[in-house]
Design a protein that fits this description.
The complex is a heterodimer. Chain A is of the alpha/beta class. In chain A, helix 15 (286-302) runs antiparallel to helix 21. In chain A, strand 9 and strand 10 (714-720) form a beta hairpin. Chain A starts with a helix and ends in a 5-residue tail after the last helix. The longest helix of chain A has 32 residues, at 321-352. Chain A is built from 32 helices and ten strands. In chain B, helix 1 (8-35) packs antiparallel against helix 8 (189-211), helix 3 (64-87) runs antiparallel to helix 8 and helix 24 crosses helix 26 (615-632). Chain B has 38 helices and twelve strands. Chain B is an alpha/beta fold. In chain B, the strands form three sheets. In chain B, strands 8-9-10-5-11-12 form a six-stranded mixed β-sheet, with helices on both faces. Chain B has a four-stranded antiparallel β-sheet with strand order 4-3-6-7. The chains are: A alpha/beta, B alpha/beta. Chains A and B meet through helix 2, helix 6, helix 20, strand 2 and helix 24 of A and helix 6, helix 7, helix 26, helix 33 and helix 34 of B.
């Protein structure tokens, strides 16, 4: 009934509008409050406020072998890299290469080094990292040995790519191994100890490479160097295979937060998180985000500086290659001092105030920029080198912090991938553009000016981003801890009643398309063998809910679990393999493909034999004789009912854990609906777990065990289907707006 | 026949070249069909493969076929890298953005190619075998031709085989057909995209290596000189072939390719050797016909926008002087820089370069109304520049003016200023001529047409004697710099300031236009065409207007350019490549703004001037710079500026902090603000909306089938029915958004044959189901667009600021303010629609309905997407507004309690027909309605009790 005018006259339209707006902003505020991350008090953050742990104890808990072997491998890598630099002119002469080509080839090696880290990190989150260490070490050792035998530039190109990929493991894998091997309280110092390998390698490497080449003699002495050099990593690979043990992922965090290590039971194997989803998740960790961007900005200077300083020493001071080499090696000495000091400081500060660690690192980055600026103002060579050395020490000190910080904020499942991103930012983002920028500046105005412009700006902005990121540190650690706690409670719940694990569990789901929120805090469970009807009017959010379950949409908040395994961030393609099949109403077929091709396509991702595929298709076509006669017809030329049959047939060739059916009867004639219902009824008697979205109430209630009624993105009613069917009043109220609703 | 001579040799060449076009077209078709992208980098990818092959085979002495394999594999990897780094990042974005990105990729590949190691060996391009055959007396066949004849069909058919007969092909086609369903069945759409790009790159390399000998490419010039292996001309031919294949069928590319190739050779054999480029005219015609009549633009490209989203300035910060001044900061900096730069230049040549930059900025600015506001991508902007330049020259130096059929001899010499004005007018006219067919082709296909236009102009039109003075000439006359008002513009500095002055004036006009109804209308048409039409905006006219404006500015820039250069080689000065680069420039700076394109011009053209034009600088300014901006700062340099601004504001906010968020200002009680002048009063007795026997067909399906209904004055009528009953389609038919049969009367006037915007001028008002509104506009602007219904904006007054524009704008501003106040939207007035939640958007939509003073309101699910509690508050608001306006209202709604509560009468639809009509109470009890909602079979309810387990 329309409201009468007298009643309405009191209500001003403006006031009514304001009421709507007020309601909405209230709801938004509440929503924001619900999804806000609570920062846990310090004593709940792992590693904060803990007892100090001396280096000796740290090493006793984790064992010395890990850090030692990894550091030695890193030194071996440095040797190899140094050899490339020292022996470049000889290689160039032997192979008759131009400067451009040589630089190009080593640049490609560098790109392989950085880009290779990404797939290796992906692997490392899935298999034993120790195994990756020794396999990859052997890999690059062999490539380096072959490098000594190349006869033309193309072969050199191939071996350099090989060495690059082989060495790509060190950044992501070593950092994550160290994180899981050593307790939080002593991590920064262990990192420091490991990081020392860099300047050590830098100091000894060039001398060693030169010495071997000299000893071998002749213009082709460089070949001997490579062959000899390759022996060292081979030995180390053997050592790591024998000595190193794979640490438990996230062990110390779990111990500190939960008091125990979650059992890595085989039935609880993790579903791998796809790379894209991992990066999406990592991007939400603000500390990590700002540190990465900060490092990227710093990279503008970091990569360009050694090159430009080399040029400066050549052009302005006239030093030869040899002199330049030892001068730059000497500057590494300052880092030898800075690294252990930084490690110690970070550990001490992390216990008191973890944010300070990030801020300190930021200050080091800023100091780096400023010291380089000062260095460029110095014309006396000794002073110039002194300040360059100090600046180098500052970056080393800053980098020691990256390991512990990333380790603290990244969820332990994707730590390796997080570590792998750092060099991508340094070299690809900053290094590449920094190189171009510095090159352009130095061509126009000379090296000194170029560095005086690039270094302080990169340092100030990069350091500033570190400092800014520090404010999110506690929030991010809290987030990682919350995930751990939620997981633990779920495991406890499941292990209490292992027989009652629901096939599907949806919890606290919020979902929006852009700014339009469609689902509000939706949650329910589906036990095995149940048929659940999802009811509601148009726009209630039923189809969106199915999208979130099948992985076509990623929710803003909440969890989706299949048989107790968390799938929230898993891609749709993987969910299908895990047993979630969605029949998309009205869009469940490939219009341009024939019936036969449609059925084959639905089986493409199923691992089975060709014969089995054919058997399944024949079997399902027996169920739908109407389709069997039209195998070669394109799906879009079928009638609406036949298209729906085909969509159902495509779902039926599988044997899913749970079948989601969206709008089976939409726009179909009653007779066709009867037919399709018969098929679904059959599935039900075979014990298939299903969720069925239906507009037509009676169709749904005809075979559902339980019904959920949704309206405007919320669950309004949940209960046995029979109850809903009996309550005619409720049904009519909802569907036809009658009294009593 | 028609005096056309056809030799065997010409036919043979036709087939050979046709096959070349076909293989390139096949590459386009493959990528387009599977990922919807027109890959402009296709040619450069192939050229890179050729360079690698030449390097491996000629320089390093690797055997032919081995080098072939290496080069192909390496190029395939490049294709993969492009997909994974660029395409994937932009995967869900508009396809036009991806097209621009491929232009950037092509630039990058060009730089990579020229920086490969030099090839010292000279000579011909290598072939796997040698020989010479003369099968008939007059026909000569060479190995390079045999290679094409054999390999091209094999490759195309192999590709077709791959697509139709293999599992990979099946997965690829499935992903293209229905991406979400493919994912649901475990097929990774991203992976298939990677596979397609990898294959397409390998395909490009193979074909490019095979056809290189025919294109006059040598190992020496492919690397060092960066020979244009696949220039715009070949690109255009391949695109025309792809269009013939309707962007789908691979075998049809073979047929189309041969058709184009043979046609081209026959034409070439029968025209003057110097007039061979007339073929480009025919190709332009062919592209136009194919796009307009054959290709249906299936992908919805509405609302593509790269405009930087500006966050509104918090109210309480506006009191700070530096915050208030921030909007002018960019303009002041850029124009200030340009104003003083000549004072620091010592050499004439430098002044010349900077004048060119200013003119270039003007050309980039011409992109703003077209691509920035109206969302139309033109790849032929330099054709308009050329037209302006050459027309100016023609008029100024007294060349013959072409008159059809030589009716009379016409030539006269005009002074510089009138010639410039006339040339600008010619640019406007040409742009309108291109703009009208463009109404039927949007997005990617518009890009193809404009590219064809650009190629035609540069290769053929600009060489006509009309412009160059001699038949098929390549260079123009010299013209002398003008002397205007005693100022001699042969002085470089004077010339600079002339161009700068024009830039300032044009920028001011464009900026002004953006603040008037014209600018708002253009953006509205781009963002939401239907909604704009419902606000009575003539969408087609507005689109053509954007073309006219853009063409005019470009032509004006052309007149300056030729004045500066004095003499020009049109085929080199106005190339399609320049057109591509100018689009890139506008995108780099920030599309849609005033200062953005100027910043873009400074970046792309200015930096190389400052830094001595090194390769690194060019790499940074066009290719990589463009890609980075597209991927991370789609709003261009301007967006970076805005982000810095936001950081400053954030800092200022923190300094001022202590104050809580601005309180919600309660709406002030008032009457609905309407304007008396437009109070169209409807008939007293007849229904205000009367619909008789409406029918709408989609294909063979009757979506609406003979529906009749009526709504009386002051009546609120509900329209209910299950999903797919045809409710929205009926409403769209009434509004004129879908073609229908039957008779529709609004306020007693028959509107059945009117376009949508005219129907709404009669007094219809429409609320849409999606409540999308105009995402890139603020609430205030959105309401001001709707106010166009009360008072239309006119182009020329809006540009010049002459009456009636200023007063009309003021009135609209005041009325918009009233409406904002009335609905209590003050807090959101300067917020962008895209940042609002649905409830607020629904209120804004209500505001637009009030603004158009509609008498007959059609609302499609006014509470759709609004959360429950807000929806409850919404019902009374709708009723109240309807009562205030005394309007007739038809409402579709799924919220049954709501619609039953507010309706006077209800119609229920099922399967496109009315099944019940009456008061809410009666309809609710109607057995047919109950059956429609609760199931097809009344017994089902009983049966369900039996089936459900206990």
């Amino acid at each position: 009934m329309p409201p009468d005018d007298a009643e309405l006259a009191d209500q001003d339209p403006a006031a009514l509008a304001a009421a709507v707006l007020a309601q909405e902003s209230e709801r938004q505020a509440a929503q924001a409050a619900r999804s806000a991350v609570t920062v846990l008090p310090d004593d709940l953050l792992p590693g904060v406020g803990a007892e100090p742990m001396p280096m000796r104890d740290t090493l006793r808990v984790g064992g010395t072998s890990m850090v030692l072997v990894l550091a030695l491998i890193t030194i071996a890598e440095q040797f190899e890299r140094a050899a490339g630099g020292v022996l470049a002119p000889d290689i160039q002469d032997t192979l008759h290469m131009s400067d451009t080509m040589l630089i190009g080839i080593s640049a490609f090696g560098g790109v392989a080094l950085v880009l290779g880290a990404v797939p290796l990190a992906w692997l490392a989150d899935r298999m034993s990292r120790v195994r990756i260490v020794w396999i990859a070490t052997i890999g690059w050792a062999v490539a380096a040995a072959v490098n000594g035998l190349v006869v033309n530039p193309f072969q050199l190109f191939c071996t350099r790519i090989g060495v690059g990929f082989g060495q790509a493991y060190s950044v992501p894998v070593f950092a994550s191994l160290l994180t899981d091997t050593y307790p939080i309280q002593g991590r920064a110092r262990v990192y420091g100890a490991y990081w020392l390998s860099q300047p050590v390698g830098l100091l000894i490497g060039p001398f060693l490479a030169g010495a071997i080449a000299n000893a071998a003699g002749g213009t082709e002495g460089w070949r001997a160097t490579y062959v000899v050099l390759a022996a060292l990593p081979l030995l180390l690979a053997l050592l790591s295979m024998l000595v190193l043990r794979e640490p438990v992922r996230g062990r110390y965090e779990q111990e500190l937060v939960l008091g125990e290590v979650l059992a890595p039971a085989p039935e609880r194997t993790e579903l791998p998180v796809s790379m894209a989803t991992a990066y999406q998740r990592l991007k939400k960790i603000k500390t990590f985000y700002y540190i990465c961007v900060g490092i990227g900005v710093l990279g503008f200077a970091l990569v360009a500086v050694p090159v430009q300083i080399g040029l400066l020493l050549d052009h302005s001071y006239g030093y030869g290659a040899y002199t330049r080499g030892w001068m730059l090696s000497l500057t590494a000495i300052a880092s030898l001092v800075a690294i252990p000091v930084a490690g110690l400081t970070y550990d001490r500060q992390f216990r008191r105030n973890p944010e300070l660690v990030v801020r300190l690192a930021g200050m080091f980055v800023i100091a780096y920029g400023l010291l380089l600026f000062v260095a460029m103002r110095m014309h006396a060579i000794a002073l110039l080198l002194l300040f360059v050395a100090l600046a180098g020490a500052c970056t080393s000190a800053a980098f020691v912090s990256v390991g512990p910080i990333v380790g603290a904020v990244a969820p332990y499942r994707m730590r390796t991938q997080a570590f792998a991103l750092v060099p991508v930012f340094i070299f690809l983002v900053g290094g590449f553009f920094g190189g171009i920028l510095a090159g352009a500046l130095s061509d126009a105005h000379g090296e000194r000016t170029a560095l005086m412009i690039v270094a302080p700006i990169a340092g100030l902005i990069g350091g500033g981003l570190f400092m800014y990121g520090s404010r999110f540190l506690k929030r991010d650690i809290s987030l990682a801890v919350e995930e751990l706690i939620e997981e633990k409670s779920e495991i406890e719940r499941m292990s209490a009643r292992p027989d009652a694990i629901p096939v599907l569990q949806v919890h606290n789901l919020d979902f929006s398309y852009g700014t339009v929120q469609v689902l509000f805090d939706v949650g329910f469970e589906v036990p095995r063998g149940e048929v659940l009807a999802l009811l509601g009017t148009n726009g209630a959010g039923k189809s969106t809910l199915l999208r979130a379950i099948s992985g076509l949409g990623i929710p803003d908040r909440g969890v989706v679990r299949l048989n107790g395994r968390t799938l929230t961030y898993v891609d749709a393609e993987l969910r299908f393999r895990e047993g979630i099949v969605l029949l998309r109403g009205g869009a469940g077929t490939f219009g341009e493909l024939s019936v036969n091709e449609n059925l084959h396509t639905s089986l493409l991702a199923t691992k089975t034999t060709r014969a089995d595929r054919q058997v399944r298709i024949e079997r399902v076509l027996e169920t739908f004789p109407a389709l069997a006669g039209r195998r070669a017809v394109a799906a879009r030329d079928l009638s609406g009912g036949q298209q729906q049959m085909l969509a159902l047939a495509m779902a039926l060739v599988h044997d899913p854990e749970i079948l989601l059916i969206d709008e089976l009867s939409l726009g179909l004639a009653p007779l066709v609906v009867e037919d399709l219902l018969g098929v679904v009824q059959d599935l039900k008697t075979r014990g298939q777990t299903m969720i069925v979205v239906e507009q037509s109430l009676n169709v749904a209630l005809a075979f559902a065990d339980r019904a959920i009624f949704m309206e405007k993105g919320r669950i309004l009613f949940e209960g046995p289907a029979r109850e809903l069917a009996e309550r005619d009043d409720l049904v009519r109220a909802v569907f036809l707006g009658g009294e009593g609703g | 026949m028609f005096g056309v001579e056809v030799t065997q040799q010409a036919l043979f060449y036709g087939v050979v070249f046709g096959l070349i076009y076909a293989v390139f077209a096949a590459g386009f078709v493959l990528v387009y069909r599977c990922t919807g992208v027109l890959n402009f980098a296709q040619g450069e990818i192939g050229a890179f493969g050729v360079a690698l092959f030449a390097l491996f085979h000629v320089q390093y002495g690797i055997p032919y076929w081995l080098a072939f394999a290496f080069a192909t594999i390496a190029t395939a990897i490049i294709g993969m890298v492009i997909e994974m780094s660029v395409v994937r990042r932009l995967f869900s974005g508009p396809r036009l953005v991806l097209l621009i990105a491929t232009v950037g990729v092509a630039q990058l590949l060009l730089f990579l190619r020229v920086s490969l190691p030099k090839i010292s060996a000279g000579g011909e391009f290598p072939l796997p075998f040698t020989g010479r055959w003369e099968p008939t007396g007059s026909l000569v066949v060479l190995p390079r031709e045999i290679l094409v004849l054999v390999v091209a069909p094999i490759f195309i058919l192999a590709l077709a085989f791959f697509m139709t007969r293999t599992s990979f092909g099946l997965a690829v086609r499935a992903s293209a057909s229905n991406a979400d369903t493919a994912r649901v069945y475990g097929i990774s759409v991203k992976r298939t995209s990677t596979i397609v790009w990898t294959i397409a790159a390998a395909f490009a390399a193979v074909t490019a290596i095979l056809i290189a000998p025919l294109q006059g490419i040598t190992p020496g010039n492919i690397v060092a000189a960066g020979a244009v292996a696949i220039g715009p001309s070949l690109l255009l031919r391949a695109l025309v072939v792809a269009l013939i294949a309707r962007m789908r069928s691979l075998p049809m590319t073979l047929v189309g390719g041969i058709a184009v190739g043979v046609f081209e050779r026959i034409v070439l054999a029968n025209v003057d050797a110097r007039n061979q480029s007339i073929i480009d005219l025919y190709l332009f015609g062919a592209a136009l016909v194919l796009v307009v009549f054959l290709i249906r633009s299936t992908r919805d490209e509405a609302g593509w926008s790269l405009a930087a989203q500006v966050k509104p300035i918090p109210e309480r910060l506006r009191s700070l002087w530096y915050v208030r001044r921030i909007p002018q900061l960019g303009l002041t900096l850029v124009f200030g820089f340009l104003a003083v730069i000549p004072l620091f230049l010592s050499r004439q040549s430098q002044e010349f370069l900077w004048t060119e930059i200013v003119i270039y900025a003007l050309i980039a600015l011409s992109i703003t109304p077209l691509a920035g506001w109206a969302g139309q991508l033109s790849l032929g902007q330099f054709a308009f520049v050329g037209l302006g330049a050459l027309t100016m020259l023609m008029l100024h130096s007294g060349l013959d003016i072409p008159v059809p059929f030589d009716l009379w001899d016409m030539h006269f010499q005009m002074a510089w200023v009138p010639a410039t004005i006339l040339a600008t007018a010619v640019g406007v006219a040409a742009a309108v001529a291109i703009g009208i067919p463009a109404l039927r082709a949007r997005g990617l296909f518009l890009a193809v047409i404009t590219l064809a236009f650009a190629v035609m102009c540069s290769n053929w039109l600009f060489r006509q004697s009309t412009w160059t003075g001699s038949k098929y000439g390549t260079s123009t006359h010299r013209i002398d710099p003008p002397v205007i008002g005693g100022v001699d513009f042969s002085n470089r500095r004077s010339m600079y300031y002339l161009c700068f002055g024009v830039l300032v004036v044009v920028a001011a006009v464009v900026a002004r236009l953006r603040r008037t109804g014209i600018g708002r209308s253009m953006i509205a048409v781009r963002d939401n065409e239907d909604m704009a039409a419902a606000s009575t905006i003539p969408t087609s006219r507005v689109r053509v207007m954007s073309f006219a404006l853009s063409g005019g500015v470009a032509a004006l820039a052309g007149t300056l350019l030729i004045t500066l250069r004095a003499q020009i080689t049109p085929t080199q000065a106005f190339t399609p490549d320049d057109s591509l680069l100018v689009i890139a420039t506008a995108v780099i700076g920030g599309l849609g703004s005033i200062v953005g394109p100027i910043m873009g011009a400074l970046f792309v053209r200015g930096l190389p001037v400052i830094f001595n034009d090194t390769v690194q600088v060019r790499l940074f300014t066009s290719s990589i710079g463009l890609l980075i901006l597209l991927m991370y700062f789609p709003g261009g340099l301007l967006q970076i500026g805005y982000q810095i601004r936001d950081a400053v504001l954030h800092w200022a906010d923190r300094r001022l902090s202590g104050g809580a968020a601005a309180p919600l200002v309660p709406a002030i009680a008032k009457r609905v603000p309407t304007r008396a002048t437009r109070a169209v009063e409807g008939p007293e007795t007849a229904p205000w909306l009367s619909v008789r026997d409406i029918g709408v067909r989609f294909g063979g399906n009757h979506a609406v089938d003979g529906v009749s209904l009526s709504v009386n004055r002051g009546e609120l009528v509900g329209l209910i029915g299950t999903n797919g009953a045809g409710k929205s389609t009926l409403m769209n038919a009434i509004g004129g958004f879908v073609p229908s049969t039957g008779r529709i009367e609004v306020l007693g006037r028959d509107v059945s044959s009117m376009p949508a915007y005219r129907r709404h001028r009669v007094g219809l008002g429409r609320g849409f189901q999606s409540a999308r509104l105009y995402p890139a506009m603020t609430v205030r602007e959105t309401i001001m667009v709707a106010l166009e219904a009360r008072e239309h904006s006119w182009l020329v007054p809006s540009m010049t600021g002459l009456p009636p524009s200023p007063r009309s704008e003021r009135r609209k501003r005041v009325e918009a303010e009233e409406l904002v106040d009335f609905l209590g939207l003050q807090r959101y007035a300067d917020e962008f629609i895209s940042n609002l939640s649905t409830g607020t958007r629904r209120i804004v939509e209500l505001g637009t309905l009030l603004a158009v003073d509609a008498r007959v309101l059609l609302l499609d699910e006014p509470t759709g997407g609004v959360a429950q509690r807000e929806a409850e508050a919404f019902g009374p608001l709708i009723v109240r507004v309807q009562r205030e306006l005394g309007a007739a209202m038809l409402v579709i709604e799924h919220d049954m309690p709501l619609i039953m509560g507010i309706s006077d009468r209800v119609y229920c639809l099922e399967a496109g027909g009315v099944i019940a009509e009456g008061t809410p109470g009666a309809v609710r009890q109607d057995p047919k309605v109950i059956a429609s909602y609760l199931g097809t079979d009344a017994r089902a309810i009983q049966r369900s009790g039996v089936v459900a387990p206990s």
